[in-house]
Amino acid sequence: MSNDIPKIVVVGGGAGGLELVTKLGKKLGKKGKAQVTLVDSTHTHIWKPLLHEVAAGTLDSHEDEIEYLSQANCSGFRFRLGRMDGLDRENKQISVAPTINQEGLEIIPRRKFDYDYLIISVGSISHDFGIKGVRDHCLFLDTTKQAETFQNKLLQAYLRAHTQGKPLDEGQLNIAIVGAGATGIELSAQLHEVSHLLTAYGLDEVKPQDVKISIIEAANRVLPGLPENLSAATEDELRKLGVDVMTNERVVEVTDAEIKTESGKTIPAAIKVWAAGIKAPEFLKDIDGLETNWMNQLVVRQTLQSTLDDNIYAIGDCCACKWQGHDENVPPRAQAAHQMASLVYKSIINRMNDKEVPEYEYHDYGSLVSLGRYSTVGNLMGNLSRGSMMIEGFMARLMYLSLYKMHQVALFGPFRVVMLSLSHLFRRSVHPKIKLH
Where are the chain's structural domains? Predict the structure, then answer.
């Protein structure tokens, strides 16, 4: 491959990053028009909105994950394992930290990668806001590994309670979720379903009513960033499931046994999940002089280029882009990352052909929240109706599933997605409904 062709480096293989590098690889990499490289700290990709299902055990991550090396081979880009930790804008290089195995041995040394176009798509991590005890006592759902850790801890707690031969201690199977955004809401519904499935699979010493699920939210309603009618419908469904919903409760401390709130409440819980806020990874803060905000997000113009460097783009949760016509930034949603990936793809193609770069305009097509097999609620927006239209039940569930299928189509094409869907149906018919190990 010629050294004269442009080098395009995408850092982060999340929803937007993997879609972008796949399109660039097929368009440019396979034809030798550019060297397209994906850098990510893990070997595999899973669609982040599915992590709550992995945590509950209703989805086996190994069945839905995508191997980066395999995707790279099919799509005409290179994959390099590693975690970006530095940037040299003058020399157009990124620095990637050494990769250390579980035994503490260095298996991949520190490396540098040259770029002509750099796209940062490293997503977000949980923001603990400096609250005492959160990092020490809460579980997080930022990565597949963290979701699997939660699932293992949950199953161990059930097995212990099933075999201990004495009544449950207070709060022994209590699960408290801090944050009533989409992740917290969807996780609570999945956990309710799991409490019934585990009983059906023979762990009948523990009854579903022994598992007490609480959601703690600082705002005055669940899903505070979404329309009030959607919020009210969701809270009503949660209460029907027996989930204890606590709003206007700001967490001030987390201990090994309980969560304390500003109003003086204490919520005992053996398993505590933090889903109350997000920020971009710490390494992005003011990286090589680029403009960032208080959430470590890279501030970008409407072209999604950083404010200080035209050759550096940011997409997804790690970027701060003004939402045109609103007094806020584009919300951190999968649909935004998908749209941003498409825009940057066009931008790079245009620049390579000396054409004008397009500007990004976020189109909000609504929000959907899945409550597992019990219900799905959402609202449709944009051209589908004037303002917003509430939807529930089967239609909402169908549209929720279609979001993931759209992501898969962007990666594999329609035919392979049909085959994957059929394969998934056959697997579900013979495999247990919950991961039991």
Answer: 7-124+280-352, 134-278, 366-430
pLDDT grade for 39, boundaries at 50, 70 and 90 = very high
Cα distance between residue 303 and residue 343, in whole Å: 8
Fold for the domain defined by 7-124+280-352: FAD/NAD(P)-binding domain (3.50.50)
Q: Give the C-alpha separation, 167 to 50, whole Å.
A: 34
- Mean pLDDT, residues 111-140: 95
Higher pLDDT, 375 or 251: 251
- Which pTM was predicted? 0.88
Q: Give the Cα separation of 404 and 422 in Å (integer).
A: 15
- In sequence order, what E strands does 138-275 have? 175-178, 213-216, 244-246, 251-254, 258-261, 266-268, 271-274
Which segments of 82-143 does DSSP mark as H helices, in order? 134-137
Give every strand in the sheet of 258-261, ordered side by side: 251-254, 258-261, 266-268
| 150-177: b (≥16 Cβ within 10 Å) or e | bbeebbebbeebeeeeeebeebbbbbbb
Q: What's the sign of the alpha-carbon dihedral 10, 16, 19, 24? A: negative
- Minimal CA–CA distance to 178: which of 242, 269, 263? 269
- In whole angstroms, what is the distance from residue 81 CA to residue 43 CA? 7
From CA 135, how far away is CA 36, in angstroms rounded? 37
**Cα–Cα distance between 313 and 10 in angstroms, integer?**
9
Residue with tokens 């480096």: 9
Q: Which ranges constitute the DSSP H helices of 106-143? A: 134-137
- Of 283, 360, 352, 377, which Cα lies nearest the Cα of 316? 360
Report which of 98, 81, 85, 83 is spatially closest to residue 37, judged by C-alpha positions: 81
Task: Tell me the C-alpha distance between 431 and 57, whole Å.
Answer: 13
CA distances from 24 to 91, 304, 334, 415 (A): 23, 17, 19, 20
Q: What is the pLDDT of residue 1?
A: 46
Contacts of residue 140, Cβ cutoff 8 Å, sequence gap at least 6: 125, 126, 146, 273, 274, 275
Same fold, 7-124+280-352 and 134-278: yes
Residues 6+ apart with CB under 8 A from 118: 9, 11, 87, 92, 94, 311, 312, 313
Domain 134-278 in this protein, CATH class: alpha beta
The overall average pLDDT reported for the chain is 87
